[in-house]
Amino acid sequence: MQVEISSGPAFAFGEITLPPGGSVSVEAGAMAMTRGDIQMATSTQGGFMKGLKRTLGGESFFVNDFSSGSGGVVGVAAALPGDLDHIMLDGSRALMVQSGSWIASDPSIDVDTKWGGGKTFFSGEGLLLLRCTGAGDLLVSAYGALRPYTLGAGEVLTLDTGHVVAFDEGVTYNVRKAGSWKSTILGAEGLVTDFTGPGRVWLQTRSSSDLILWIQSKLPPQRS
């Protein structure tokens, strides 16, 4: 499939051109438009248990599969304002994608769920990961702009868990508190993830968890 990304990094829009006989799997609700000869079928992509695992990983239970007999276009957009990135997988290594960032991929890409660990009572954060394997095209989304980093062997990059988008499976990672329990509570920092190269890491410049907390702070208090 051919992918063109426009209107980024604030409001990125992806147009996926399908050749005759082509198809693409899209996260439920991410389709914004279709053009030309496009048919849609909804499935769990792998059966009930696979769909259930995606739900536990923060994705929709169902996936929409778009196909074309004579060629067409599928337009996709993420729920939150931000950027999109088109990543090619060659089958040699998996890509770990943070929950909610997978938008679309070739049907040949297998998307499974993996618990990345690190949830705590104070922060409520952790890593819920999607393990994407196979060869083909993959679209990931970010809240805010996307920043890719390539780490050398032994090089360490530390990210707040809410800013993680994706990383190569060969990159090792460790989820930990940002500091002591005192700084975690008083300093408003929860968990961070240390990534150690070699490999690629993608971060987003905004955190949806921070957005939710900000909205909650502006809501009037509930009365019993």
From TrEMBL:
| UniProt cross-references to Pfam families, sorted A to Z | AIM24
InterPro entries documented for this protein? AIM24 (IPR002838), AIM24_sf (IPR036983), Trp_RNA-bd_attenuator-like_dom (IPR016031)
Q: Which domain of life is it from?
A: Bacteria
Checking SUPFAM superfamilies in the record gives: TRAP-like
Q: What is this protein called?
A: TIGR00266 family protein
According to its UniProt entry, this protein's organism is: Longivirga aurantiaca
